[in-house]
Amino acid sequence: MQNEPLAFRMRPRNIREVVGQQHIIGENTALFKMIENGHVPSMLLYGEPGIGKTSIAHAIAGSSKLPFFSLNATHAGKKDVEQIVVEARLAGKVILFLDEIHRFNKLQQDTLLPHVENGSIVLIGATTENPFHDVNPAIRSRCGEILQLKRLSLEDIVQLLQNALNDEERGLGKYTIEITEEQLNKIALSANGDARKALTLMESVYFASDEEDGKAIVQDHIIDHLAKRIGVYGDKAGSHFYNLLSALQKSVRGSDTNAAIYYLAHLLETGDLVAVCRRLLVMAYEDIGLANPAVGAHVFAATESAKRLGMPEARIPLANAVIEMCLSPKSNSAYSALDAAIAAIHEGKTGDIPSHLRDSHYAGAVALGHVGYKYPHDTPIGTYGGWTDQQYLPDELEGTEFYKPVIAGEEKRLASIYEKLKSFKKD
């Protein structure tokens, strides 16, 4: 067993040994009480790598005493599934832990689903992807619980490390290790909420440490060297990447410069520069909009510069763009107006284009009644330029206001013009 990685050896043997995820499997949760009373429901466990999906499945199996089987959907075949079905028939009931369940194909589903439905197979599926996007509805419908795991807290990770240091059978307890509380915290911080990374780093630190009088002396520079980049996680095609993009945009929208810069840093570490640039450009028009129209041009220049420069220099113009957007006045009035107009069209609120607005650049237009258009440039008002009072919307929509100004930044001036022009119209 000692040949197995420390993270593997330290998996909880029952649900009482689970560290963290107390909102899912703490002693006061319904799931804990069900398992303690001998009932294990089928479920989906959703969350980032290393935060306990596999450990919870093993802990549930250990507490339930049911036969436990594990498959990975990325390489399991129909024969593997059929073998589980045979085992279920022999045992009466088994637990199947299916990792990467979002990759389960239809043939595998057709073989397995009836047995999940009749209860002979308790399915515990694990996925790093959003189950509502990536897990087949047939699977979801048979899993009563969809449980979203959280990244472990610093205290949770420290507790796991201390457990490993004290456990003589499975952990490092049989060794004498000199490590400070500050060093344990440094390892825990480096893992960034990932239990597997924390335990793997702890094991590596131990084996890289100098030995004096039969004692391993942990040194800070060893931790620093081994911990490089350990906190970075992000699949460019995965849910976590899109969650980071969402967090970046919402932080900018909320004018939180520190959070926005943090999420930008995380996104750039994942390596998809083009996707980051696209999202920043959208944000300039979606969230800043008419309150500061110049931001669109600024962000476009920054993103084009970033793509031309490449990393690591690309981070410089992007950081400027993000902070400018954070601290800029904000308005979503323009695209909200467009969305309102699109919604009106989908609701059937349409009408004929007024005759005087229709194309009249052809012989016969007068005969069709396409006349009466007043050319605004012929009637300037003050310093605004040309304007004339005439109907532009169809009769059925006349008087409808899709645009609702936001009194912020540059749009405050635009809003005053909008209201002034409305006052010129004849009732």
Automatic annotation (TrEMBL):
Residues 39-151 form the AAA+ ATPase domain. GO terms for molecular function: ATP binding; ATP hydrolysis activity; DNA binding; enzyme activator activity; single-stranded DNA helicase activity. It comes from the Bacteria. SUPFAM superfamilies: P-loop containing nucleoside triphosphate hydrolases (SSF52540), post-AAA+ oligomerization domain-like (SSF48019). It holds the Pfam family AAA. One of its GO terms (biological process) is DNA synthesis involved in DNA repair. SMART domains: AAA. InterPro entries: AAA+_ATPase (IPR003593), AAA_assoc_2 (IPR032423), AAA_ATPase_RarA/MGS1/WRNIP1 (IPR051314), ATPase_AAA_core (IPR003959), DNA_pol3_clamp-load_cplx_C (IPR008921), MgsA_C (IPR021886), P-loop_NTPase (IPR027417). Keywords: ATP-binding, Nucleotide-binding. Belongs to the AAA ATPase family. RarA/MGS1/WRNIP1 subfamily. This is Recombinase RarA. The lineage of its organism: Bacteria, Bacillati, Bacillota, Bacilli, Bacillales.
